[in-house]
Each structure stands twice: as C-alpha cells, then as structure tokens.
Structure to design on (907 residues):
C-alpha cells in the first residue's frame, strides 16, 4: 500500500476525489448494470496480449508487470496509467520506474495504458482509472517504484545465472548490468528474453532505494520524453487521429442550458456538399460530413426550434442577486468551532464584513473537446484524451447501446483539460458514441470524429460554478481575530449526478467549501455554512476546484482583518499559522524571496496569499504597479512544498503554469449569461485568457522535503487571485472583491 | 481544383476555393501538426508560413494562395528553425504541447526577420499565440536562447566568409 502520511480530512475535495472502494462500488452500481462486469474484465488490449503477440513476431520482450516492457532493442516502455494532459505525468511516473530499475533515462519510452480499472486504477480512487485531484504522482509513487524494482531484481537474477555469479555481485547503472569481478556486462535488452521466462517476485518483497541513493528523482536536468514530438508537430491528440474513411461530426446544441429539441428541418443541411448524415442526439443534432469545413457549413443550415420550457432563462447577474439574498439567510452548517455568533456580538468586538464574488468560468483548453469512434459488429473503439477512463467506458457503452466489455478506449494526449475531460457524464464521449450508433442505424459504416468548435467549448457549459462568499470576522481589543463566520453560496458540482451520494454529505458538497472547511488559521470561533442553489447551468471541477474561489475569499479576508487590526498582513498570517509548519515555511520563503517589507515606490505594492490544496502547500507574493486607471502584475514569487520534489523542473513548470492559469481568472476571464439565459461569450476575443504580454516574471521556489510527494497540477492556482488583489490594495488603497479584478 | 505549393511540393486539391487552409491541411492533406484552436485568428495554434510570413491558416483561404510558398510545421527546416526547435526542446517549453507548433512557427518567423529581438519585440510578435498551460516564460526564454545560438553561429561563420 502507498504510504500517505498526510491523509485528507473529510469534507475536502481531495477526500471527495478519493471515495472509498465501497462508496464507488455502491455509486457506480447506479450508473449501469454492466459496471460490476466492467470492473472484472480488462477494458482494453492487455499488455499480456501485446507481449504474446510480440513474442510471436520474434521480438521477445520482458514484461515483469503491467507497467514495464523491455525489448531486445534495449527500449524500456513504461505504461502510464494516467492521462498526459500537460502536467508531466509521462515524465513523473517514468522517473519512478527508471529510478528503481537503474535504467538510462534515454532508453525510457512512456505510453498510455489501455483502459483497465483492474490494473490501472488510481489507488486513491478504488477500482477506478482516472486522473485528477493532483493525485497521479502521489498515488503511484510507491507502485511505480515497486514495478521498477521488480524488473531490476529479475534482470539482475538473469545476469547472475547467465554469468554464474552471485546476484549480490551484479550492479546496475544507467541500463547496464555489470559484474566487476569478471568484467562482464550486458544491456537490459540483451537480458530481456531470458528475464521474460522468470516468474516475477511479489512487488511487496523487493527493496526500494533509500532517498539518499536516488539518481533520477530530484534531478533538475531530466528532459521530458514527450517534448520533441510536441515541438515539431508529431504528437497526436484526439483531434489528430485519422482513420480510413473517417467522417467528421459537429453538434448543434441548444443556446440555453436545459432546452430540448422541438422541431428539426435538416433538408437544406443534408443537401450540402459532403454531408453524409444528420443524427439526432439527446442533447442536440449532429451533422456528419466528409470534412470539418463541410460539417461546419451544413450545421449552420440546420433549421431548429428549441423547447425552452425547462431551460435557464435568467441571466447571471440576476442569479447573483439571488445569491445575495440567499446570503442573508442561514445555510447548512459545515464547520462550527467555538461560538462564532456570540464572539461576533461581544461588546468589544471590532467587526469586519466583506463579500467576494467569482464568475462562471470555462476551462477553454487549447485543444477543444474531440474524440474519434469506430463502431463495428464486435464493439466500439474510441480515441480520446480521457481523464476518467473507467466512467467514460461505461458512458460510451450506454450511449452506443453496448456492454462495457465491448468498448475499447484508447487514451491519447490531451491538449489541456483542467478538469473538462473529466466531465461526470462523459458528455462529449456520449455524443461521439451516439453519433457512431446513429450512423450505423442509417446504414453508414465509417469511423467518425467529433469536434467541438471553440464556440461550442465556451458555450457548452460544465463551468467552474459562480460563487459568492459572505465573510464576517471579529477582532478583539488587541487586534487578534477571534471570530470568523463564512457563508458560501455556490452551485453544487455533484448534486444531481450519480456521484452525489459520495461527494455530498449531510447536504454539503465538499467541493463547494474545501479551503474554508479546513481553514488553517488559529481563530478560536469559526462557523461556516453553505447554500447550494440549483440551476440548469452545468458546472464541473475546474483546475483547483473549490479552492479556485475559497482561497480568494479566505486570503482576501485575512488581509482585510490585518489591515483593520493595523497589522502587517504577513505577520498576522504567520502568527495565526504558528502551529502549521508547512504553511508557515512556504509563506516565509515566498516573502523572503520577494523582498517583503522592503520599501516600494508609491503606486507599487506587494500582496501575499498562502493556501493548502490537494495536500500541497503554496504561497504567492504578487508585485503590482498602479497604472492610469488600472494596474499591472509585474512579478509573482511562489513557494511550494509538495513533499519529495520528484521532477523539480516540472514542478516549476506546473506552478508557473498554474500561476498563469490563476492570473487568467484574476485578470481576464468571465463567463456570463444575458438576461435571457444565453451565454454572452463565444471565443477568445470575448472570453479572454492571459496572453504573453500580461505574463509577469514568475519565480518558483521549492521547499526541500522527504515527505511523500503530493500534486502540483492544481495547487499553483488558488493563491494567485488573492495575492494580486491584496497587492492592488497595498498599491492603491482600493479593495477589489470581485473576479476578474478591475480598478475603477 | 486548387493548386497549392506546400512544403516544397505542388498539391492538387479537389476542394472549394473558400476552404480555409487549416482544413485543407488537416482534412485533405493529413498535415495535422497545424492545430485548430479558435477558427477566428485569436489563438495562433494554426500558424503557418506563407512566403515566409507567419499567417493564421484558419482565416486564409486556399483560393488566395495560388503561387504562394506554404510551409507547415512538418516542412519547417533551416538554421533558424533548427535553432528554435533545439531551444524549445532544451527548455522543455511544452506542457500539453497543443499550441506549440504554432508558437514555433511564429517564433521562427520572428527570428528570420529579426535575429536578436528584445523583450518588447518578442511580446509584440508572440502575443497572438495563446497557451493555456502558461508556458509563456519558457517561450520567451527559448526565443532568446535561439537568438543567442544563431548569433554565435553567425559570429563563428563570419570570419570564414570574409576569409
């Protein structure tokens, strides 16, 4: 079992993303009757079969377990059970295997695992294969190392037998087995055939390296094995998959969430060049043509009347007004330490109140949603940048009218995801499976690629929820915070989904309040309550999930308390975190590197924020300059503690990238519905994201650690917006409480 | 029938002249290194070279490209291209990688025109190329590194040329 010193507390998203095995079995039993079967059967082509096939071809590989294949050409293929979507998991998991094998880094070739919840499950998620919650490296840390150590032991054994020497006298370095006494040496590839005939030892019985013997883990100069193909255009994403005779499908979806099809006149579209079919889907109408351009033009020619009786018909401003009203009334309590209400009404209490709001946000990965499906008599094959293979297989099966064991899901690189490709109902994969079935029903036998246009992506829902935080605090006579009452109004991501019973406990969706429910500041009286308004607007986890808004509220508010108390915002935080060494350390490190407290010119300011998410600890110091009517972010200094830094360069890339992602939300992005319920933005001209000109200098400092590694994909995001807002206050005296941040 | 010169070879395509170059490349020719990101010239993922200039293939129509020299990421070559790709790989710029072919095409066009761009010139040239993974700091550093390598190479060869 993986050692996890730092188990998440119930009520955090991390806990939510790690439901127990029993919970998942119970929940997924409701998804489809085929589930239990799916979990028993391999979901795709098994490496064991690959091995057999390769042996028949005279290319005898050594496959000691489901994660490693060594071929006579001396290549070590590492099977990666998680989706590579830019976060560097190909490098991370391969590093662990190569470390314990003592392989040479340049002989390592990562590849995506087949969909198979039996062998490739996320160990934190029970019998479910999937990537999310910044869990990949953490859940696989020991598993991958043991896989590598098993392979090493078998290669050493093989060499010792071949050379007639003691196994203990065989050394391994950079993929070469050696016996010093006899001067003999051999590559892994040369031993692969013989090693393949051994029975692998129990992974739990092999020795793992002590950290002081790591040669690859922690090494800064380890290049990413997928960089070259991503630089010269060879890397294949779902949108690039090409099959013989493949058609392209675009789907027209209703302009208002919750609307359904009333009437369809597809005559004009069907008559257009290249159009092969029009397929009705539960959520829209697909036009299938020989090329994207034909499909796009024909989609415009569809004549559709929508039934808006169940649709959202109010705008996001009106929704926010409702949120304001809700915030006047008590919600469902998720945390209650001491007696916050009494402390707030103490006669000496100095009360501070603030409201923070954040908009809906689209994920907007650079590769819009796309998938390819081929339906034949024997089943369906799908190619996708799948973040949640186990559930995607079930949903594809259901939409195609097949059993889960008839689905073969090929995971390919995702051109970004940020949570979007982990949609709970596999929305876009159901679409492509439904289209494939529709084509077959119309007598058309051809593989089909579904492409969402950028407009489809921005308008297609599954947003980060809009949220309002109403926070009230009290300082005692000495300026110490003694009460914190935090009311959250936020649409539940999980309510109404098959996962509701796992994620929503006693009326609380943990993903709505994570970051508040585990508020780390030593305030004696804390009360938190939650309203979860419903709407037809689909919402979803978005890089850092609830922390993307809770940290903005918490870290802005603690700053407001500090200013009300006349205290330095850094010093007050350090005081309130005195029993939180890991938070304290990143806070102090970021502040020191940023030059906190040094005099700054008028119109410039520093702001700080610190937060724990996904078991990692991050602090940001932002440096801003007020400009004529606005401000610029000049520099971000970040400190991160993510346990053992396995790949320091990827940690820096993820934290810098998370900082940029957080800055998009802090400065630019906003998804709104007009007063008729129609999304107002459609593409990057009006749904703005950070461009190079606005990217500040970003410094990332990694805290050395021997703790088990934790994730870095998401934790770089939450502290950015509050650090910038706090810096704007320091520079201008204006407190900004609404994202995106604008002055004036 | 549309005649295009792509990556040095002439192609005859049976597609309407109002087809965007992006879809002619991707769907008709199978050159999928040029990416679709927005379709309205807002993201730069589809950047190709037309007569050496960086253009957005999503809003460039094949009928307008008669006699033009079109270069895609698949056909990109030469000392500037090699320097840019080498710098990109050395800096491990790519995260998801989806925007990177477009970024590389844009950077090569910049360095071909301006061998030693300063930060402002890089910002002006690269600001139209979006990256959601936020690799901007490494893109900037890689362009400087490529410019440095090209400058060194030029300095190395200059005396030989004179001599």
């Amino acid at each position: 079992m993986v050692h996890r010193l730092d188990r998440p507390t119930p009520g955090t998203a991390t806990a939510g993303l790690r439901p127990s095995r029993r919970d998942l079995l119970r929940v997924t039993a409701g998804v489809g009757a085929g589930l239990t079967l799916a979990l028993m059967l391999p979901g795709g082509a098994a490496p064991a079969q690959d091995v057999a096939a390769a042996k028949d071809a005279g290319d005898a590989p050594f496959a000691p377990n489901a994660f490693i294949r060594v071929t006579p050409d001396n290549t070590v293929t590492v099977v990666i059970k998680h989706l590579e979507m830019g976060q560097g998991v190909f490098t991370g998991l391969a590093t662990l295997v190569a470390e314990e094998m003592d392989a040479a880094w340049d002989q390592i070739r990562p590849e995506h695992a087949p969909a198979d919840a039996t062998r490739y499950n996320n160990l934190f998620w029970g019998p479910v294969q999937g990537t999310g919650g910044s869990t990949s490296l953490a859940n696989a840390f020991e598993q991958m190392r043991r896989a590598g150590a098993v392979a090493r032991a078998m290669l050493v054994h093989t060499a010792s037998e071949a050379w007639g020497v003691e196994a203990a006298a065989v050394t391994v370095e950079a993929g070469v087995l050696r016996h010093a006494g006899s001067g003999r040496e051999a590559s892994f590839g040369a031993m692969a055939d013989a090693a393949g005939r051994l029975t692998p030892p129990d992974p739990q019985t092999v020795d793992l390296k002590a950290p002081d013997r790591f040669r690859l883990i922690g090494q800064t100069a380890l290049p990413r094995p997928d960089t070259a193909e991503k630089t010269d255009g060879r890397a294949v994403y779902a949108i690039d998959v090409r099959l013989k005779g493949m058609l392209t499908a675009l789907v027209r979806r209703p302009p208002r969430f919750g609307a359904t099809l009333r009437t369809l006149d597809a005559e004009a579209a069907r008559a257009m060049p290249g159009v092969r079919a029009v397929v009705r889907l539960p959520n829209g109408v697909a036009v299938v043509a020989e090329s994207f351009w034909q499909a796009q033009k024909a989609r415009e020619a569809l004549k559709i009347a929508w039934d808006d009786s169940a649709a959202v018909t109010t705008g996001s401003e009106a929704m926010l007004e409702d949120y304001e009203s809700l915030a006047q009334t008590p919600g469902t309590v998720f945390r209650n330490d001491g007696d916050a209400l009494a402390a707030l009404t103490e006669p000496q209490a100095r009360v501070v109140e603030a409201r923070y709001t954040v908009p809906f946000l689209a994920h907007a990965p650079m590769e819009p949603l796309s998938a390819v499906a081929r339906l034949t008599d024997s089943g369906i094959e799908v190619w996708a940048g799948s973040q949640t293979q186990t559930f995607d297989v079930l949903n594809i099966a259901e939409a195609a009218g097949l059993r889960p064991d008839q689905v073969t899901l090929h995971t390919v690189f995702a051109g970004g995801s940020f949570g979007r490709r982990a949609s709970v109902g596999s929305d876009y994969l159901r679409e492509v499976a439904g289209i494939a079935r529709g084509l077959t029903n119309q007598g058309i036998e051809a593989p089909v690629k579904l492409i969402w246009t950028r407009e489809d992506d921005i308008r297609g829902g599954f947003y980060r929820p809009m949220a309002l935080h109403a926070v009230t605090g009290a300082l005692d006579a000495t300026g110490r915070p003694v009460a914190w009452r935090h009311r959250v109004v936020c649409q539940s991501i999980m309510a109404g989904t098959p996962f509701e019973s796992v994620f929503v406990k006693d009326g609380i969706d943990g993903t709505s309040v994570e970051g508040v429910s585990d508020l780390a500041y030593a305030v004696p009286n804390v009360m938190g309550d939650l309203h979860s308004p419903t709407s037809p607007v689909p919402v979803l986890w978005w890089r850092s999930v609830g922390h993307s808004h809770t940290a903005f509220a918490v870290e802005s508010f603690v700053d407001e308390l500090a200013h009300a108390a006349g205290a330095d915002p850094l010093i007050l935080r350090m005081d309130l975190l005195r029993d939180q060494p890991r938070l304290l350390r990143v806070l102090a490190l970021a502040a020191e590197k940023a030059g906190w407290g040094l005099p700054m010119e008028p119109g410039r300011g520093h702001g700080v924020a610190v937060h724990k998410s996904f078991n990692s600890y991050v602090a940001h110091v932002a440096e801003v300059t007020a400009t004529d009517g606005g401000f610029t972010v000049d520099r971000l200094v970040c400190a991160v503690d993510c346990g053992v830094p396995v790949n320091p360069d990827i940690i820096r890339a993820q934290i810098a990238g998370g900082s940029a992602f957080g800055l998009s939300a802090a400065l630019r992005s906003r998804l709104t519905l007009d007063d008729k319920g129609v999304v107002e933005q459609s593409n990057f001209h009006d749904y703005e994201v950070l461009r190079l000109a606005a990217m500040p200098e970003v410094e990332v400092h990694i805290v050395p650690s021997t703790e088990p590694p934790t994730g870095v994909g998401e934790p770089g995001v939450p502290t950015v917006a509050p650090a910038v807002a706090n810096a704007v206050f320091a520079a201008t005296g204006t407190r900004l409480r609404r994202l995106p941040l604008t002055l004036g | 029938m549309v005649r295009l010169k792509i990556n040095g070879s002439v192609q005859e395509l049976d597609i309407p002249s109002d087809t965007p170059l992006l879809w002619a490349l991707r769907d008709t020719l199978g050159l999928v290194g040029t990416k679709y990101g927005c379709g309205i010239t807002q993201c730069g993922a589809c950047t190709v070279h037309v007569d050496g200039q960086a253009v957005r293939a999503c809003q460039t129509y094949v009928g307008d490209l008669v006699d033009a020299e079109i270069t895609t990421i698949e056909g990109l070559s030469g000392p500037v291209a090699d320097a840019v790709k080498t710098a990109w790989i050395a800096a491990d710029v790519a995260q998801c990688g989806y925007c990177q072919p477009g970024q590389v095409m844009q950077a090569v066009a910049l360095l071909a025109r301006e061998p030693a761009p300063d930060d402002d010139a890089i910002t002006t040239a690269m600001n139209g190329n979006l990256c959601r993974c936020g690799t901007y700091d490494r893109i900037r550093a890689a362009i400087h590194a490529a410019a440095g390598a090209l400058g060194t190479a030029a300095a190395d060869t200059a005396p030989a040329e004179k001599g």
About this structure: Residues 96 and 133 of chain B are 7 Å apart (CA to CA). Residues 136-162 of chain B form the longest helix (27 residues).
